[in-house]
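mind reviewing both lines:
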Amino acid sequence: MNRSPLIGERRTKQRKAIIAYLRYAMKPLTAEEVFDGLCREFDNLSLSTVYRNLKKLQRSGFISAVKRQFENSTRYTLSDSSHVHHFVCRHCMKTIPLNFCPLEAIKEKVDEDAFKIEGHSFELYGSCVDCINL
């Protein structure tokens, strides 16, 4: 039997497609974006199925949830995705990857006796060039 990252659960065609879609997205996606991207491929796919699979994958640690400061929705990305941070346009929601991790500069200033860093997320919010020039 073809098993998923979820111990004891079958790897359904829909779950495999959700994982593949997140893998190749190159940015964190909402459940709605995943659904919109896959609904033509699966006639019987529902938004609730996408949410249910994303929650199961998140509980298993296979994907991570990203909550942006100015959005009400949660975005998802593969936990094994390369370590990437983003610029996010607050107007058009364009997401541009940073080619470095700003934590390295911050680590030097953290007193590791007082605080041990165990993880981080980092996004910069603002306006992209296209929106500035409107």
